[in-house]
């Protein structure tokens, strides 16, 4: 069965961030992911992971200093800032034993030369992949739909896979979010059959479409896709990156995890027994 990781940036919004680690463990998750660790000391986060028996799957490699930004990797003139931020992210990744770092392309400035943005993005990715490889880490790139993030530079799966091929490093892969992919391109089963066997997909993510809630309603048949992902031999993690319908209610995220139990995921009782 697929392995699911809780996205702590989005799940358990009724709890403080540091308290979400224990919530995820109690609900049976063995791994987590989140967006930004930089407001916390690495030792503090490492302790939360260790105390709750959790692995960290990935986090974003560039701190979000400007709320309007979604990464800076494609932006000419900000290469030095990108590299300094990536080296900081590598320090966190090593301290937290996290294999993957998500390098967001950024939003294309209005009227910008897209070929220049792409060249900058490729150069930054090649540099980041080299740094990551030296430390036994990987870089992930993710196409994001322009409805949620207008102007985002990277929106299509094939463009992401072409970039990975052009970088030509085993230390860069695609983060394939099925929510974004369905909105932009659809035809999810065909795309999974096309891309998973290549080995270029380093991480999957899910959410219901169109409302980005639990993957048990909406237009996507996730039970079918979970079986297909298994059949295709994908052994990586699937990040649960969604807004719980009842997330602001106490225990709302946990109450919405029936889909995980139906998918064969670990339950509260089995995880608790395993930790005894």
- Report the total helices: 11
In one word, what is the shape? Answer: globular
Radius of gyration: 18 Å
CATH-assigned fold name: TIM Barrel
Oligomer: single chain
Describe the protein in words.
It is a single chain. The protein is α/β, with parallel strands linked by helices and 276 residues long. The protein is 39% helix and 13% strand. The chain has a 9-stranded parallel β-sheet with strand order 3-2-1-9-8-7-6-5-4. Helix 1 (20-26) links the parallel strand 1 and strand 2 (31-33). Helix 3 (79-95) packs parallel to helix 4. The longest helix is centred in the middle third of the chain and has 21 residues, at 114-134. Residues 267-276 have low confidence and may be disordered.
In a few lines, what is going on in this structure?
Residues 267-276 have low confidence and may be disordered. 39% of the residues lie in helices and 13% in strands. By secondary structure, it is of the alpha/beta class.
Annotate the secondary structure layout.
Layout: E1 3-7, H1 20-26, E2 31-33, H2 42-51, E3 55-56, E4 58-60, H3 79-95, E5 100-102, H4 114-134, E6 138-141, H5 157-167, E7 172-177, H6 178-184, H7 188-195, E8 201-206, H8 222-231, E9 237-240, H9 252-255, H10 258-262, H11 268-275
Parallel strand pairs: 1-2, 1-9, 2-3, 4-5, 5-6, 6-7, 7-8, 8-9
């Amino acid at each position: 069965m697929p392995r699911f990781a809780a996205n702590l940036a989005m799940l358990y919004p009724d709890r403080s961030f540091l308290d979400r680690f224990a919530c995820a463990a109690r609900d049976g998750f063995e791994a987590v992911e989140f967006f930004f660790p930089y407001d916390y000391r690495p030792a503090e986060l490492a302790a939360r992971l260790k105390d709750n028996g959790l692995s960290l799957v990935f986090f974003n490699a560039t701190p979000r200093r400007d709320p309007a930004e979604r990464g800076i990797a494609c932006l000419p003139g900000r290469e030095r800032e990108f590299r300094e931020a990536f080296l900081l992210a590598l320090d966190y990744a090593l301290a937290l034993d996290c294999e993957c770092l998500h390098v967001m392309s950024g939003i294309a400035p209005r009227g910008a030369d897209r070929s220049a943005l792409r060249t900058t993005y490729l150069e930054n990715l090649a540099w980041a992949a080299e740094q990551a490889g030296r430390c036994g880490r990987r870089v992930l790139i993710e196409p994001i739909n322009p409805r949620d993030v207008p102007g985002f530079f990277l929106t299509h799966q094939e463009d992401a896979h072409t970039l990975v091929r052009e970088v030509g490093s085993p230390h860069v892969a695609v983060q394939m979010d099925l929510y974004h992919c369905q909105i932009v391109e659809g035809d999810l089963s065909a795309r999974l059959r096309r891309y998973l066997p290549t080995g270029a997909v380093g991480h999957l993510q899910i959410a219901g479409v169109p409302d980005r809630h639990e993957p048990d309603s909406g237009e996507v048949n996730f039970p079918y896709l979970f079986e297909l992902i298994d059949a295709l031999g994908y052994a990586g993690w699937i990040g649960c990156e969604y807004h719980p319908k009842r997330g602001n209610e106490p225990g709302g995220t946990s109450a919405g995890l029936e889909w995980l139990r139906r998918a064969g995921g670990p339950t509260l009782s089995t995880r608790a027994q395993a930790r005894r």
